[in-house]
Design goal:
The complex is a heterodimer of chains A (about 270) and B (about 400). Chain A contains nine helices and no strands. With about 270 residues, chain A is mainly alpha-helical. The relative contact order of chain A is 0.12. Chain B has helices at about 10-30, 40-45, 75-80, 120-130, 140-145, 180, 195-200, 235-240, 275-295, 300-310, 320-330, 350-365, 375-380; strands at about 60-65, 85-90, 95-100, 105-110, 135, 150-155, 165-170, 190, 210, 225-230, 250-255, 265-270. Chain B has a seven-stranded mixed sheet with strand order 2-3-4-1-5-12-6, with helices on both faces. In chain B, strands 9-8-10-7-11 form a five-stranded mixed sheet. Chain B has two domains: about 10-155 and about 260-380, D-Maltodextrin-Binding Protein, domain 2; about 165-255, 3-Layer(aba) Sandwich (D-Maltodextrin-Binding Protein, domain 2), CATH 3.40.190.10. In chain B, helix 7 links the parallel strand 8 and strand 9. Chain B is globular. The chains are: A mainly alpha (about 270), B alpha/beta (about 400). The interface between A and B is medium-sized, with 29 and 32 residues.
């Protein structure tokens, strides 16, 4: 008889807290929208500064939806391709540095320098060199996203226990076997931790970099500024929401991959 | 702070009344008619009471929200500012008695700088802040925001838009139009997603891949071989006075390229029209005359503009030379002018209807919800004095 109650309790503890937070956020949103002076002093009753949730889609006519869709495609494709390249570049660098101490000492300071330099400083230089092309967008995204992958790969590769290395030495394993059967699997929890951070950064890179890519069809970043300049608060919020959802989507995909590939055998 | 009706300034008003009576007598004795030839006489005959007394009909202060830092294009409004003005650099507001040709009208005038001093476009500020009576709203903006923020333009301060696309004349001597230069440079740089640029793209004047929306107001021609937006009243002068070496510029007005929007209208929140009607009837003719007075004899108001700019203490700079250049250019190019009618500052229906027909498809393509409005929905000549004309 106690079993069903436990299940109900478990479900409650799983779903009720997020729902409570959701209700609080929506209530806070409404409170903010209706507490701002003259927010609804417009001719048609729409919000001038912050639209309440039920007015979010006011002004989303066909032309606006088309603009948002085009911008979403540009930012999403930049983030996806940029993230893939960041994985390749980050892991390659991490592995290379784990193999060679001299390579690590040569590259590490530069990687740190790139990481700590604000991307808004680098982006205009990249555009000057590469033009306002898709390649330049990718470069910005890769630069902002690759470092956590590289550093976590290096850390993971170096963290393999000496005992396990001894086992591979005893079995006379080749360098390739040691890399693919010992070091990479052992480093995968750390690599996936880096991937989760980089996933968010790739989306940020694609959208922040977009502010500087001022030619051709705008991505989400520039479209938000256009809506801001025209005080079209509804479309502006929808665009921001899509940017957040893309970031969330990246995070979820990486988490699922981690669960599939690492969780079955890894216990932190 | 809520606006309030200004306390009567008995002494000043008495003096103003005397001046008005004397002026009326002068007109009568000189054989003036109801539609007298001088602006003053027409204004005087508009109402039996002293039309310069605004205290009974206008909220004080009369707040004008401008679209940028103080500059010569706003000269007509600063012309109405009395010498007793003070500057609030924090708010970008300049406040003094509203003075018409040296006579205090009994209310205060507050002129607010735009640009970085406001969070939203002027048209939105007019609805967020109920204290604003007039805002500078171009016809294209009035159309694009008509649903959410309906405005009614009551006086056009600039008949022709001073907005230009300009380029380095020495590097492109054969280019005389925007279409010419768009074929020669790598980019045409403008601020944001501007409807006029969409119009130029739609007409094939500028290829879409050459539109750069990142113009930030710098003098780009010093370093880049591009074309960029600017004001004919400012940028050509600034380029000829560059410290790094003068650059001779060529330009085309976007007005001449077909975007014939009235650029700088004094507009009100349309929802407040009935409440403001009696004030507008007396104040708008003063605005007409003040703009003419400014361009005819700008020295006093230019000194005011320079002083206000200095007191605001921002990165924006002005000089007497630049301001005088601006006034001369406005007159020379007809930017301040009567247009096709003798009345100064009026809205000409054929031009407005033609522009509306041209602009609405562009604005809708931009995703803006624009209803089918007519000229009378967004502008009126009701409050203008038809006898006021630029000589």
């Amino acid at each position: 008889m106690k079993q069903p109650n436990r299940r109900i309790d478990a479900r409650r503890s799983k779903y009720v807290p997020p729902l409570v937070v959701l209700v609080v956020v929506v209530a806070g949103w409404y409170a903010l929208a209706y507490s701002l002076d003259n927010n609804f002093a417009s001719g048609d009753g729409s919000a001038l500064i912050i639209p309440p949730p039920h007015q979010l889609f006011v002004g989303l006519n066909e032309a606006t939806v088309d603009r948002i869709a085009a911008a979403t495609w540009i930012s999403l494709s930049t983030a996806v391709v940029g993230f893939m390249l960041a994985i390749v570049a980050g892991m390659a660098l991490g592995i290379a540095m784990s193999v060679s101490r001299s390579l690590e000492s040569a590259l590490w300071p530069w990687l740190i320098a790139i990481q700590v330099t604000p991307i808004i400083v680098l982006t205009p230089i990249i555009i000057r060199v590469a033009g306002a092309s898709f390649g330049a967008r990718l470069t910005v995204t890769v630069l902002i996203a690759f470092f956590p992958i590289a550093s976590n790969t290096l850390f993971g590769m170096r963290s393999v226990s000496a005992a396990l290395h001894d086992v591979f030495t005893l079995t006379q394993a080749s360098r390739w076997q040691r890399l693919t059967r010992l070091q990479l699997p052992a480093a995968s929890p750390a690599i996936f931790a880096g991937l989760r951070v980089s996933a968010g950064l790739a989306v940020i890179g694609a959208i922040v970099g977009d502010f500087f890519f001022t030619r051709g069809t705008p991505g989400l970043g520039r479209l938000i500024t256009f809506f801001f300049q025209d005080t079209r608060s509804g479309p502006m919020f929808v665009t921001a929401l899509i940017a957040a959802l893309i970031g969330l989507g990246f995070f979820v995909v990486v988490s699922l991959l981690r669960r599939l590939l690492v969780s079955p055998w890894h216990r932190p | 702070m809520a606006p309030s009706i200004a306390p009567r300034r008995t002494f000043l008003l008495l003096a103003a009344s005397l001046v008005a009576v004397l002026a009326a007598c002068t007109n009568t004795t000189s054989g003036g008619t109801a539609s007298g030839s001088t602006p003053d006489s027409v204004t005087e005959s508009a109402t039996p009471a002293n039309p310069r007394d605004l205290a009974d009909v206008c909220i004080s202060p009369v707040v004008v929200q401008t679209d940028w830092y103080p500059q010569a294009e706003h000269g007509g409004i600063y012309e109405l500012l009395g010498n007793d003005y003070t500057v609030d650099a924090q708010r970008g507001a300049t406040t003094g008695s509203l003075t018409f040709r040296g006579t205090d009208t009994g209310v205060d005038l507050e002129i607010r700088a735009g640009g970085p001093f406001i969070e939203s476009p002027v048209v939105t500020e007019m609805f967020l802040d109920g204290g604003i009576m007039f805002g500078y709203v171009g016809t294209d903006v009035a159309l694009s925001r008509y649903n959410e923020a309906p405005t009614l333009a009551v006086f056009n301060a600039l008949t022709v838009n001073p907005q230009v696309i300009l380029w380095n004349k020495a590097k492109h001597p054969k280019s005389t139009t925007i279409a010419d230069i768009a074929g020669e440079v790598a980019a045409v740089s403008v601020f944001g997603d501007r409807p006029y640029m969409r119009f130029l793209v739609s007409k094939g004047v500028v290829p879409v891949d050459k539109v750069d929306t990142n113009y930030k107001g710098s003098l780009m021609l010093a370093t880049d071989d591009v074309a960029h937006q600017g004001f004919v009243t400012s940028e050509p002068f600034r380029y000829t006075n560059l410290e790094s070496g003068a650059i001779d510029t060529a330009y085309q007005l976007i007005h001449d390229a077909g975007w014939t929007s009235y650029p700088q209208n004094l507009a009100i929140n349309k929802l407040r029209l009935d409440a403001l009607r009696s004030c507008l009837a007396r104040l708008v003719p003063m605005m007409q005359q003040a703009q003419i007075d400014f361009v005819s004899s700008p020295s006093r108001t230019i000194a005011t503009l320079l002083d206000v700019v200095q007191q605001l203490d921002t990165t924006w700079s002005q000089s007497a030379e630049l301001a005088n250049y601006a006034v001369a250019t406005m007159r020379q190019l007809g930017i301040v002018g009567n247009g096709n009618t003798p009345t100064f500052g009026d809205f000409e229906s054929p031009r407005l209807d033609d522009f509306i027909a041209r602009a609405i498809p562009i604005l809708r393509e931009q995703g803006l919800t624009v209803p089918d409005v007519t000229a009378s929905d967004i502008a009126t000549n009701e409050f203008l004095n038809p006898g006021i004309t630029l000589p």
